[in-house]
Write a structure and sequence with these properties.
This protein is of the alpha+beta class and 157 residues long. It contains four helices and four strands, in the order βαβββααα.
Length: 157
């Protein structure tokens, strides 16, 4: 991505060298780091690592690697933006729970299947909104797989 000039921020599994940069009691850390791959093909890249406190686990941090320059006061904002992205990723994965299997090479058939799967996913989200009104937000009470089984049990025709 460096060669293409693409800016990136990715979540990182912290190495010992990264964890050592976090001093006791520090809320956030932003530091330059040389990321290295020691196995063949070997490579190294200068990056910026930053860590912010975990939202729910005390004494834990969430680590990120980026090729952008990050100001320490902006680290939390970048982490929050990155966290919002996962809702979108999860939605695309859950739409796959409704996709029927097909071997058709016809684009219109495949497009219809995808749009139908999106409609079923949206119906599942609506069912969860109606069921969980007033309940704990964020945790669906009906999973997409359970909802799919319910829809498949319905007789058609």
């Amino acid at each position: 991505m460096e060669q293409l000039g693409v800016d990136y921020i990715v979540r990182a599994r912290p190495s010992k060298g990264m964890k050592d940069r976090l001093s006791a009691g520090a809320e956030t850390v932003v530091d330059d780091y040389l990321m290295q791959r020691k196995r063949k093909p070997t490579a190294s890249a200068p990056v910026t690592v930053f860590a912010v406190p975990h939202r729910s686990k005390e004494d834990e941090h969430v680590w990120f690697v980026t090729n952008r320059e990050i100001a320490p006061e902006a680290a939390r904002a970048y982490a929050a933006a990155f966290r919002r992205r996962w809702g979108i990723e999860t939605s695309y994965r859950q739409i796959g729970d409704f996709l029927p299997r097909t071997s058709s090479p016809t684009f219109s058939v495949r497009l219809f299947y995808f749009l139908f799967a999106v409609a079923l996913y949206n119906l599942c989200v609506l069912a969860n909104v109606l069921v969980t009104e007033g309940a704990i937000p964020g945790k669906p009470s009906i999973s997409t797989r359970t909802f799919r089984e319910f829809v498949l049990l319905t007789g058609y025709g």
